[in-house]
């Protein structure tokens, strides 16, 4: 009998991806790291980060033993840093509660920080060959089109229908690599053939049965997110420069960019010189306005007004969560993407630095 699972498994044999670095074995640790990195990030971007991460932390025990700072430094540039913090927290739980052996069932995996139902299912499938359904963003798109499901896929009632379809679509014969091939095929099809903007239905193994293709509704499915404009926040980032070194502060562990090194941030409109004097007892010698940087988060937009200051006084007291550091060394630390961009464009050559001194 032809089913979505049989079509996908056949297709995967010929056209699926078989040589991704995390496909080389069934080590749940390696699969877990790759699944977390692949959340919100494309395969090609993930691969070099994955190699560096696995080289630094080859086992769950080594990750559990590492300081969070070292984990964040390796994550720097990949974004969504809560993933790295959760990875680290989960490693410590697996080390202490499970003697470094991953739980084998999806429900126990779901109890670990940062592992939702779909990620837990993917780990259970690829590590232990369990019959579990996945439903990441790409798979939601494939199912919404194939089954012709209207409504924004992250809305709870639509999500419930999609999960039911995901369960129904699982292959009944799931041994001998069938469940792994089916799951990988779904991921690959969503990432390559059934893409968001320009799906290539003519080469899709599902095209004869796909409701969206049959009814010519591909551009309507999945239903887009209801539009609402994002609020905008405006802040000033301070480049405090002394002896060619920059002042950085570590963000509190919870909240945006938690645990990462950042330029001091103050609200837009605040008098910078007065703030520096009140906060750190320093006098500003020169102040340069740098080009504005816009950054978008899921829930709001951030407009950053960077200001570069050279300072007179050296009385500034340092806490454990602040450092003076050369810009080139700052780039080796765990820093948020907008700060990385600002450092790179401001200090791209030593000549740049010279104009500020
Ligand atoms: S036929 Fe087209 S829309 Fe339907 S699943 Fe395949 S690629 Fe997606």
Please provide a written account of the structure.
The chain is elongated, with a radius of gyration of 24 Å. Strand 1 (232-242) and strand 2 (245-250) form a beta hairpin. The longest helix is centred in the N-terminal third of the chain and has 16 residues, at 82-97. It is built from 16 helices and 8 strands. The relative contact order is 0.10. Helix content is 44%, strand content 13%. It is α+β, with helices and mostly antiparallel strands and 357 residues long. Strands 1, 2, 3, 4, 5, 6, 7 and 8 form an 8-stranded mixed β-sheet that branches. The termini are far apart. It has 2 domains: 4-220, Endonuclease III, domain 1, CATH 1.10.340.30; 232-354, Nucleoside Triphosphate Pyrophosphohydrolase, CATH 3.90.79. The mean pLDDT is 92. It binds iron/sulfur cluster. The site of iron/sulfur cluster has 14 residues, from helix 9 and helix 12.
How would you summarize the topology of this molecule?
Elements (H helix, E strand, L loop, with lengths): L3 H12 L12 H11 L4 H14 L3 H6 L2 H8 L6 H16 L8 H5 L6 H12 L8 H10 L9 H14 L8 H16 L17 H4 L17 E11 L2 E6 L10 E2 L2 E3 L4 H9 L3 E6 L3 E4 L4 E11 L10 E4 L1 H4 L6 H10 L3 H5 L3
Parallel strand pairs: 1-7
Antiparallel strand pairs: 1-2, 1-4, 2-3, 2-8, 5-7, 6-7
Helix pairs in contact: 1-11, 2-3, 2-8, 9-11
Iron/sulfur cluster binds next to helix 9 and helix 12.
Summary?
This protein has 16 helices and eight strands.
Keywords:
357 residues, alpha+beta, Endonuclease III, domain 1, Nucleoside Triphosphate Pyrophosphohydrolase, 2 domains, eight-stranded mixed sheet, 16 helices, 44% helix, 13% strand, elongated, binds iron/sulfur cluster
């Amino acid at each position: 009998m032809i089913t979505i699972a049989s079509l996908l498994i056949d297709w995967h044999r010929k056209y699926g991806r078989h040589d991704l670095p995390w496909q080389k074995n069934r080590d749940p640790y390696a699969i877990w790291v790759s699944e977390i990195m692949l959340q919100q990030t494309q395969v090609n971007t993930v691969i070099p980060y994955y190699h560096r991460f696995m080289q630094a932390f080859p086992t769950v025990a080594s990750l559990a033993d590492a300081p969070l700072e070292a984990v964040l430094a390796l994550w720097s540039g990949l974004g969504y840093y809560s993933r790295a913090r959760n990875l680290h927290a989960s490693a410590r739980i697996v080390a202490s509660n499970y003697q470094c052996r991953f739980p084998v069932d999806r429900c126990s995996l779901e109890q670990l920080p940062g592992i939702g139902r779909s990620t837990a299912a993917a780990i259970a499938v690829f590590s232990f060959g369990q019959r579990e359904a996945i439903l990441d963003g790409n798979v939601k798109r494939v199912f919404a089109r194939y089954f012709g499901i209207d409504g924004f896929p992250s809305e709870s009632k639509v999500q419930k229908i999609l999960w039911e379809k995901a369960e129904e679509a699982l292959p009944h014969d799931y041994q001998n690599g069938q469940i792994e091939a089916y799951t990988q095929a779904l991921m690959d099809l969503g990432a390559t053939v059934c893409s968001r903007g320009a799906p290539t239905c003519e080469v899709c193994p599902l095209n004869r049965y796909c409701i969206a293709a049959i009814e010519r509704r591909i551009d309507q499915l999945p239903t887009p997110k209801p539009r609402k404009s994002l609020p905008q926040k405006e802040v000033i980032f301070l480049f405090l420069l002394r002896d060619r070194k920059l002042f950085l502060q570590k963000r509190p562990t919870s909240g945006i960019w938690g645990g990462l090194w950042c330029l001091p941030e103050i609200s837009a409109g605040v008098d910078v010189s007065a703030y520096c004097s009140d906060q750190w007892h320093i006098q500003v010698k020169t102040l340069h306005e740098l080009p504005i940087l816009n950054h978008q988060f899921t829930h709001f937009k951030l407009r950053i007004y960077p200001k570069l200051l050279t300072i007179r006084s050296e009385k500034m007291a340092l806490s454990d969560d602040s450092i003076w550091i050369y810009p080139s060394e700052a780039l080796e630390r765990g820093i948020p993407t907008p700060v990385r961009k600002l450092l790179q464009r401001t200090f791209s050559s030593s000549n740049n630095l010279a104009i500020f001194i």
